[in-house]
Design goal:
The radius of gyration is 23 Å and the shape is globular. The protein folds into two domains: 245 residues, tt1808, chain A (Alpha-Beta Complex); 135 residues, Rossmann fold (3-Layer(aba) Sandwich), CATH 3.40.50. The protein is α/β, with parallel strands linked by helices. α2 packs across α3 and α8 packs across α9. The strands form five sheets. Strands 1-4-7-8-9-10 form a six-stranded mixed β-sheet, with helices on both faces. The protein is built from twelve helices and 16 strands.
Amino acid sequence: MTPPMLESHLEHWMIDQLQEKGYLYIKPEKLDPDVTTTLRSTYSEVLIESHLVAAISRINSNLTPDVVLQAVREFKRETTSNDLITSNEKFHALITQGVDVTYNLNGELRTFKAKLVDEVNHHNNQWCVTNQFTVIENGQHKRPDLVILLNGMPVMVIELKNAVDPNADISKAFNQIKTYQRTIPSLFTYNCMVVLSDGFEAKVGTITSDFSRFMSWKTVDGTTNALSSTGKMGVMLEGMFRHDVLLDLILNFTVFERYKYEDKDTKTIRIGTAKKLSQYHQYYAVKKAVVSCVDASIFSESKKGGVIWHTQGSGKSLSMVFFTGLIVKTLNNPTVIMITDRNDLDDQLFDTFSNCAQLLRQVPVQIENRQHLVQELKNRNSGGIFFTTIQKFFPEDEAEFPLLSERSNIIVTPHTVRI
């Protein structure tokens, strides 16, 4: 699967590859309001609203057409903001949790979460690719190379450069993406990830990623890494662009992490937001860990799920966030206890989880002492993410450490660092 060299040829080569993988190709003229108003009526529209309406109807079969339209209106209203990161984070909450709609059921008003995507029945989702998608915003005319649409929402922008042009490497593609974000920000309201490629090299990141944070996808199946001589775009197409993997990354492997920084002008401390996407090794490690954990909780006598080994700087804290978010969904909201062997590590991991609370759908708690943990476990039958150090479990006056809980839906995950 060797891509061509010229940028225009590369563009159509990628469209052909994506069509083979089940993506519907929408020709640019089908999205051109000067030619037809079937899919969009103005160049400022970035949503294919008819596709979104049809998808919500398919996925939420209990909703009437009027309520479906209500969901679309609410979706557009809630994602409207003057700040791109704010609107993008709200979009992510809606695509993962659904849109609140109200309807009358037997004379009573009911609130329902209208799902925008189907995580279970993938055939209910519509994946499309288009090229040279013209957007006009604030007098600026831009045409990104490729756009991936999920149920009418432009969830990915792909910028291409010519591999044989020494002055057009993928860093230039990154700069082009940043220009798009400044000039046509509405296109990135619904963006889940950005891909840069010259046909051989390929990297993926988010709307807040620096160029150094754009990463390759180095495996097709999570079992073996591709050979260094293999084009990375081809590997990404075979591995990451699978519909199930891409949807999984969007729903379960994306976080908005808060961080503090100093404003250079005012010298005050402000709060920023970094949107982070799982790297390939985190994705496959977490998926395997979840399978092992489920097996241990249901079938294994030892109840031991296994070990994940991370090298320094490979993102072990975020891997734990992704694991916890996915295991909470998979095992119907168990209680998760994170145990570390150092106070500073406990603080660090707790801060990371607290700053990524949206994915977890609950606020983590840092345990003060043994009695605090006992009380927390007694106060609930499920749920809760707790952080503590192993030192709190040393026996005091008792000859043996007392039983903390007889519940079976508690997952204990030790997290240690060894140099």
